[in-house]
């Protein structure tokens, strides 16, 4: 998450805000290696840290990260079937996180912004950056997480 913050600061400019979501990419792959309860707890704790470090208001990422884990756990057989579905899942996860965190900040009047400008100047560039990250990190993460062994294990053990 610290790397995400540094990359966000490095890539953001005056009008353009690019958010790095490397943590969400790693979270997606980590689901294969750890139990459901463990991942929910880790996602909640990391969400609290994310909220305190980046957002300044507790509850946004600490709610969204466990929901992302729940979502990926429920579709994990499909997600880890091939590389293309992993890329699309990361696109969905990053888009959902960016959109729902913005909606929650707007709904609780934590920020006042135009959604059209938000999509053009923040969400689209962030999504493009994170797609590049996902493509570049796909092979190293598959090797690191042992995707072939994990996928075989996933096929045998389908219970949560």
Automatic annotation (TrEMBL):
<feature type="transmembrane region" description="Helical">
    <location>
        <begin position="119"/>
        <end position="139"/>
    </location>
</feature>
<dbReference type="GO" id="GO:0005886">
    <property type="term" value="C:plasma membrane"/>
</dbReference>
<keyword id="KW-1003">Cell membrane</keyword>
<keyword id="KW-0472">Membrane</keyword>
<dbReference type="GO" id="GO:0008360">
    <property type="term" value="P:regulation of cell shape"/>
</dbReference>
<comment type="similarity">
    <text>Belongs to the MreD family.</text>
</comment>
<dbReference type="Pfam" id="PF04093">
    <property type="entry name" value="MreD"/>
</dbReference>
<protein>
    <submittedName>
        <fullName>Rod shape-determining protein MreD</fullName>
    </submittedName>
</protein>
<keyword id="KW-1133">Transmembrane helix</keyword>
<keyword id="KW-0812">Transmembrane</keyword>
<keyword id="KW-0133">Cell shape</keyword>
<dbReference type="InterPro" id="IPR007227">
    <property type="entry name" value="Cell_shape_determining_MreD"/>
</dbReference>
<feature type="transmembrane region" description="Helical">
    <location>
        <begin position="52"/>
        <end position="75"/>
    </location>
</feature>
<feature type="transmembrane region" description="Helical">
    <location>
        <begin position="87"/>
        <end position="107"/>
    </location>
</feature>
<feature type="transmembrane region" description="Helical">
    <location>
        <begin position="12"/>
        <end position="32"/>
    </location>
</feature>
